[in-house]
Design a protein that fits this description.
Layout lengths: L3 E8 L2 H14 L6 E4 L6 E10 L4 H9 L6 E11 L16 E8 L1 H15 L14 E9 L5 H10 L5 E3 L1 E8 L6 E9 L2
Antiparallel strand pairs: 1-3, 1-8, 2-6, 4-5, 4-7, 5-6, 8-9
Length: 195
């Protein structure tokens, strides 16, 4: 098996995939900025990005992830934000270039962080380095290719006010990612249930 581009994530239920489609439908034509929206069906919460994994190492990754023990938990989306964060009102005189529009967690953030830390610890012996930045539980809605002066405060208020349902995080998945002109294609390689 050749190398695979891989990541570990919590899958999101259909209600979230449908919610993402609704957000895109509601805002796509109202924004002048160029956004690459996450495709419904692809939406997930990344726990660890692995990058290119040699084909013969994939079984070892699966074995290491299978040893991760965690209790299932409930998560629910909440407030939205940007990477990089929007400056405070007093610092908004400089040109701000948002790169990612995301949705945070109102419930389950600490549990997702603990799971991400356990996954990282399990993969360290296989040569996957620890993340330099602290884990931030977020759901990427869109990557912003270039930004214009759009009503970003309205976008954030709308996202935070939507009725995002509670979702059960009863397991995580190792995914393969294949990049293509129509966007990435994600294929589950192995699933790991809470226990």
């Amino acid at each position: 098996m050749s190398a695979v581009r891989a990541f570990v994530a919590l899958p999101l239920p259909p209600a979230y995939q449908d919610g993402l489609a609704a957000v895109r439908r509601d805002w796509e034509r109202r924004l002048r900025s160029k956004l690459a929206w996450t495709r419904p069906g692809n939406w997930h919460l990344t726990l660890k990005f692995l990058g290119d994994v040699a084909g013969d190492q994939v079984p070892r990754v699966v074995s290491a992830l299978g040893a991760v023990r965690f209790s299932g938990f409930t998560m629910q989306a909440g407030a939205a934000g940007f990477f990089p964060p929007r400056p405070a009102p007093e610092g908004r005189s400089r040109r701000w270039q948002p790169r990612v529009l995301w949705l945070g967690l109102a419930a389950g953030e600490a549990a997702a962080g603990a799971l991400a830390a356990a996954i990282e610890k399990a993969l360290l012996p296989l040569g996957f380095p620890a993340e330099e930045r602290p884990f931030s539980a977020h759901l990427t809605l869109a990557r912003i290719k270039w930004s214009e002066p759009d009503p970003w405060d309205e976008v954030l208020a709308d996202l935070a006010g939507r009725p995002w349902p509670e979702a059960s995080a009863a397991g995580f998945t190792l995914y393969r990612s294949v990049l293509g002109p129509g966007g990435p294609q994600y294929t589950p390689l192995s699933g790991f249930a809470a226990g």
